[in-house]
Amino acid sequence: MGEALVGERWRGMWLERLAHMPLFIDLWLRHQRRDAYWKHGSVSEDFSRIACPVYAVGGWADGYSNAILRLLAGLDVPRKGLIGPWAHKYPHFALPGPQVGFLQEALRWWDKWLKGIETGIMDGPMLRAYILESVRPAPWYAERPGRFVAEPSWPSPRIGARRLFLTEARLDDAAGPDRELLIASPESTGARAGAWCPHGTSPDDPDDQREDDAKSVVFDTAPLGERIEILGAPVVEIEVSADRPNAKIAVRLCDVHPDGASTRVTYGILNLTHRDSHENPQPLEPSRRYRVRLQLNDVGYAFPPGIRVRLAISSAYWPITWPSPERVTIRLAAGRATLSLPVRKPRPSDDALPPLPPAVSSAPERRTVLREGRTERVAGHDNVTGESFYRALDDMGEARIEAHALEIGSIKRGEYRIRDEEPLSAKAQTHWTQLVGRGAWRTRTETRTTMTATSDTFRIHARLDAYEGEERVWSQNWHRSVKRDLM
Question: What is the pLDDT of residues 304-314, one digit of tens each?
Answer without folding.
Answer: 999 999 999 99
